[in-house]
Specification:
The complex is a heterodimer of chains A (115) and B (111).
Chain A lengths: L3 E2 L4 E5 L4 E3 L2 E2 L6 E8 L6 E7 L7 E2 L2 E6 L4 E6 L8 E9 L7 E2 L3 E6 L1
Parallel strand pairs in A: 2-12
Antiparallel strand pairs in A: 1-4, 3-9, 5-6, 5-10, 7-8, 8-9, 10-11, 10-12
Chain B lengths: L3 E4 L2 E4 L5 E7 L5 E8 L3 E10 L2 E4 L7 E2 L9 E3 L8 E8 L6 E2 L3 E5 L1
Parallel strand pairs in B: 2-11
Antiparallel strand pairs in B: 1-3, 3-8, 4-5, 4-9, 5-6, 7-8, 9-10, 9-11
The chains are: A mainly beta (115), B mainly beta (111).
């Protein structure tokens, strides 16, 4: 079974609109962490945001926020006021508590921002 | 500047010619890992290392070798590359419970 599922292979969004990228996860471990990375067309992997399973508040980093719904096992990335430079692949990943290092990756969502 | 340095950025080679992709990090990270990225398949882990002289297979280790003789270096070796190893490769490192830092990637083409 997939441990990390990103159901949207691709999305088109109008510039300046908010975007929600979906990520659902599957784990029985009570301790885990969720990561989002961005990969622009240049290829590098850029860390965006992190949410720990015990964190009380949803994580935010500038225009990025994580809509963490533990009961639904979802960790959606929200980008407010999208910009052309947000066009990229976005990957969700999970680290389970039994591993201090290993990440499990989703297949990614390709986001295209339209001017 | 904290970084993972991966070389070369681009590499074209022929079937069977041994090659090495180098990876070095300057953050004293215990953990290092190699991934390959193919369209529609996301990131797949090839090998990883928890510390010096400790390496383990990831999801797709066949056709690859690694070594971890020093903490900072984690080279990826293709003894006899084949066309199905044409891919984008990433090296990454982290310390315990921290985010992964990635190298800039190596686009490999095996003809």
């Amino acid at each position: 079974a997939q441990k990390i599922t990103q159901t949207q292979p691709g999305m088109f969004v109008q510039e300046k609109e908010a975007v929600t990228l979906d990520c659902t996860y599957d784990t029985s471990d009570p301790s885990y962490g969720l990561f989002w990375y961005k990969q622009p067309s240049s290829g590098e992997m850029i860390f965006l945001i992190y949410q720990g399973s015990y964190d009380q508040q949803n994580a935010t980093e500038g225009r990025y926020s994580l809509n963490f719904q533990k009961a639904r096992k979802s960790a959606n990335l929200v980008i407010s006021a999208s910009q052309l430079g947000d066009s990229a692949m976005y990957f969700c990943a999970m680290r389970e508590g039994g591993s201090n290092y290993q990440l499990i990756w989703g297949a990614g969502t390709k986001l295209i921002i339209k001017p | 500047e904290a970084q993972v340095t991966q070389n070369p950025r681009y590499l074209i080679t022929v079937t069977g010619k041994k090659l090495t992709v180098t990876c070095s990090q300057n953050m004293n990270h215990e953990y290092m890992s190699w991934y390959r990225q193919d369209p529609g398949l996301g990131l797949r882990q090839i090998y990883y290392s928890m510390n010096v002289e400790v390496t383990d297979k990831g999801d797709v280790p066949e056709g690859y070798k690694v070594s971890r003789k020093e903490k900072r270096n984690f080279p990826l070796i293709l003894e006899s590359p084949s066309p199905n190893q044409t891919s984008l490769y990433f090296c990454a490192s982290s310390s315990q419970n921290e985010k992964l830092f990635f190298g800039s990637g190596t686009q490999l083409s095996v003809l």
